[in-house]
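Before our next group meeting I need something from you. Please put the record directly below this note.
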Amino acid sequence: MQATTFVNMTFVKSGVLGFAAAAALSLCATTAQAAPRADAVTWKDGATTLSGFVVWDDASSAKRPGLLMVPNWHGVNDIAVAKAKMIAGKDYVILLADMYGKGVRPADNKAAGEAVKPFYGDRKLMMERVNAAWAALKAQGSKAPIDMTRLGAIGFCFGGSAVLDLARSGTVPSGGIVTFHAGLNPDDAANAKSIKSRLLVLNGANDQGAWPDTDKFFAEMRASGTDWQFVNIGGAVHCFTETEEHSPGNCTYNAEASKRGYRMMRDFFDESFAKK
């Protein structure tokens, strides 16, 4: 059944806080005493070696849902690892995915722009690379406490675009995909028929980069027939979960929007995995 929600949350106020404060404000605050591990892992996409981390709290051996996490255009760095640990808590095992290749770690926005250019220029490459990461997550089932019947994906900015292309490839079942301030533009409208996963798309109401693509994205979602929700968070611009971003009106962390986004993500996955 197709279920579409369009929400304008005008009560969100902008804020600038450090990463520790953001974690405390989020629903992940209950995991503050946890110290999730981050184990380096490599995998292949053709001839390209990728290098990321598997993140989970090993205080318990209980199996839990596995999430693929594709970070923003800066890729796998210390900030992305810290975010993966915060989200994982005691609730998830996360594969933090490398899209660029082992050792390719953009140092600034200029380098990050060059790193993402091949993927936006060749969406087939984007699909292949994110599918390799999805396979890498599933390969961790024998090494980390992942409930292999409960798998999903999340992505931020460029990473949100990547996991939307994962959905468009038809690989991810109904476990679900959540995006935060993602690029929405579909490459090929025909891919809509391949989407099997439930989708929660969290967007900033004032994200000027995303809005030109919303009509095409909505048309794609309607054609897919999948269960999707688009939540438009009032007061938020692009990068609203990125604690290190403080460019007013363009790419800015918003503590309240981030907190509410993570809450909606958890509620979405709780509902999705309960259907298993």
